[in-house]
Amino acid sequence: MVQFEITFARHGESVFNKGKLVQGQTDSPLSEEGELQAQYLAKRMSNEVFDYVFVSDLTRAQQTAEAILKSLTTPPREIIKEVKLRERHFGDREGMHISDYRAWLKERGLSFRSHEPEGGESFPAAKERIVNAFNDICEKLLVEEGAVENSSLLRVLVVGHGLLYKELYCHFIDTLCTDIPGGKERVKQDSANTSLSRFLVDYSGKAPPLVKCQFLYDYSHLPEEMQKALPSKAY
Question: What is the pTM of this model?
Answer without folding.
Answer: 0.94
